[in-house]
Design brief:
The protein is mainly beta and 293 residues long. It contains 3 helices and 15 strands. An 8-stranded antiparallel beta sheet has the order 1-4-13-6-7-8-9-15. A 7-stranded antiparallel beta sheet has the order 2-3-14-5-10-11-12.
Length: 293
């Protein structure tokens, strides 16, 4: 009788793993070589707010400045990842970012693919924002393609791996090798095709970052710190020959996600996605034809 009671309790009590996504079955971060910060990057701004220790980079924001870095090479496709640990506590108004962009090469008419961590207030989770800008859609003509997520873990407790897979066919955002979003190429006008550099930064975005600007950066809690390690940037650089084949984040050379990867992505989107621009009735979707079907 005791055995059956124990069995019933096991079945009734939810597993602590129930809040974790199913395995994607494939782990692309293991396929690409890590590099040290100075092998692939240089400081872009705020050098006094940046330090490197045993290949791990720390950048911070205080009332005087933030900091940013940039890859040495531009790319036309590839896998771009880093393990990142965020600051705990009050971080409202602060953006910690890892992204692709060509804003310096095409000011006022640039492309961008973003992973941004939107700071938060005490007791509330970070929001991970993914975004895609095409040919100046972020340069005063805001046509953002935001999808926002909460995470199934505390990103301040440890390093987790965040990545962007950019190919001529699609863009895939991954967290710990789990695809969370796929942005397909529907047309040349809605997809970034020009070479981009890889960037990271921490900066004050109080006007919009936390609950649409309701909560601002509070420098009583400075410095605000972002830690990066395990850098990966593999693919076709802007200088690679035309025969360079885009890398894949799936078991298939074509880059098509497996059924198991799709299942994991759908699980994340159903449980942890908190905003999808395609479902926002306030948006003018004539400007985002990729939402039509």
């Amino acid at each position: 009788m005791a055995f059956y009671l124990l069995l019933v309790l096991i079945l009734l009590v939810p597993s602590s793993n129930a809040e974790w996504p199913p395995s994607p079955g494939y782990f692309p971060s293991r396929k690409f070589r890590s590099m040290s910060f100075y092998q692939g990057f240089r400081n872009l701004w705020g050098p006094q707010h940046q330090s490197v220790d045993q290949n791990a980079l720390t950048i911070w924001l205080d009332s005087t400045s933030g900091s940013g870095f940039k890859s040495i090479r531009p790319f036309r496709s590839g896998y771009f990842g880093a393990s990142i640990k965020l600051q705990t506590g009050y971080t409202a108004g602060v953006i910690t970012a890892f992204y692709l962009s060509n804003n310096e090469a095409h000011p006022g008419f640039h492309d961008e693919v973003d992973i941004e961590f939107l700071g938060t207030t005490f007791g509330k989770p970070y929001t991970l924002q993914t975004n895609v800008y095409i040919r100046g859609s972020g340069d005063g003509k805001i046509i953002g393609r935001e999808m926002k997520f909460h995470l199934w873990f505390d990103p301040t407790k440890d390093f987790h791996h965040y990545a962007i897979l950019w190919s001529p066919k699609d863009i895939i955002f991954l967290v710990d090798d789990i695809p969370i979003r796929r942005y397909p190429r529907k047309s040349a006008t809605t997809f970034p095709l020009r070479p981009m550099w890889l960037y990271g930064s921490i900066w004050d975005a109080s006007s919009w970052a936390t609950e649409d600007g309701k909560y601002k950066a509070d420098y009583r809690y400075q410095p605000f710190v972002g830690q990066y390690s395990n850098f990966k940037a593999s693919g076709c650089s802007a200088y690679s020959p035309p025969r360079c084949h885009p890398v894949s984040a799936s078991p298939y050379r074509s880059g098509r996600l497996s059924g198991q990867q799709y299942s994991a992505m759908k699980w994340v989107q159903s449980h942890y996605m908190v905003y999808n621009y395609c479902r926002d009735n306030k948006r003018d979707h004539s400007l985002t034809p990729e939402c039509w079907g």
